[in-house]
Amino acid sequence: MNKAPSTNRFAGGVNPARWVRVFLFLLLLCFSPSAFADDISTAEPVTAEQVVVLEEKVAVENGEQEEHKLSPNAPVVFSVGKVPVTSSMITGWLAAFVLLAAAIRFHIQMKAGKNTRFTATVEALVVFLSNFLADIMGEKLARRTFWLLGAFFVYILTANLLGLFPGIGSVGWGHDAEHHFMVTTPLFRGVNADLNTTLALGALFFVFWFIWAWKANGPVGLLKHIFGFSGEATGIMHFVMVIVFLAVGFLELLSILIRPFSLALRLYGNIFAGEVVLETMMHKVPMLSWLLPVPFYLMEVLVGLIQSLVFTLLSAVFIMLICSHEEKETPPEKGPEAS
């Protein structure tokens, strides 16, 4: 029986990441004091790596095939003071650096008067997003919010595509397993496969949604928009409708508070599920690990594009619903022929 050494070093390899099982094992130790009281009182602290190695030994002794699971939590690579820096944060910084370099290149080429394929692609993307948002929100509101909504689309799309590059999730620190190198702490990980990142995007949307809603309606208008009654009922029906609209207003307020979480969970769930599928296909048949994930990589490219578009679309719709009264169309003037 081969024993996996416990040395921790940096190298490239596969990332099965068994932190979920480690967490459940530690919970079992914490919430079963009656069964392990004598051992816990005298035993030395056990590290996470030792638990992983112990699980591997038990699986080998029982004749079980080693499973590869992707942890839902991004591992901490290092800390700056008390602030932990995870692998998804590093990938997010890399995506931001790519976008910054592209913006600088576009500015330099446009200033020099060079029309290249790169500048044409950027211009086409900007025109597409501008027209797409204008059809939903109106031109005035689309121009005002384009800098945020366009940034959402470009950043999410770049992060999703960057998560499919080789080395993301398979290069990092780990130890030698029975037949391969197991990466327990990857250096890079998909940005939107971390719930903290998508929650940050949802929170950013909510902050600017509130600012634009406050500017467009004011405090009183915002309350009227949520709780106000609009209708022509009179008498007792007017009183009944006021109560109904007040109850509906509380439901609308709850819906508004849930929106950033729904945006975050939708994006996180789709991207994390895609990474789990790729991880599973990569280790389902080791001999075909170079071939089986290929169709799913192509599917994830499409999913990354759709999810970035959905996040931007829903954000635009939520903003339009609270600021739509600014986009009232003026009726056409009657000319001499119409009179």
Please, could you describe this protein's structure?
- The chain is mostly helical and 339 residues long.
- The chain has one domain.
- It is built from nine helices and five strands, in the order βαααββαααββααα.
- The strands form two sheets. A three-stranded antiparallel sheet has the order 1-4-5, with no helix packed on it. It has a two-stranded antiparallel sheet with strand order 2-3.
- α7 packs antiparallel against α8, α7 runs parallel beside α9 and α8 runs antiparallel to α9.
- It is globular and about 80 Å long.
- The N terminus and C terminus are likely disordered.
The fraction of residues assigned to DSSP E strands is 5-15%
Question: Nearest-angstrom radius of gyration?
Answer: 27 Å
Q: Largest beta sheet, briefly?
A: 3 strands, antiparallel
Strand order of the biggest β-sheet: 1-4-5
Q: Strand-and-helix sequence, N→C? A: EHHHEEHHHEEHHH
Q: Which oligomeric state applies? A: single chain
Give the class from helix and strand content and strand pairing: mainly alpha
Shape: globular
Q: Total strand count, please? A: 5
The proportion of residues forming helix, as a percent range, comes to 55-70%
Count of the domains? 1
Q: Report the average pLDDT across residues.
A: 77
Topology, pairings included?
Blueprint: E1 9-12, H1 19-30, H2 33-42, H3 48-61, E2 76-80, E3 83-86, H4 87-111, H5 117-137, H6 139-162, E4 171-176, E5 181-186, H7 195-227, H8 236-284, H9 293-323
Helix pairs in contact: 4-6, 5-6, 6-9, 7-8, 7-9, 8-9
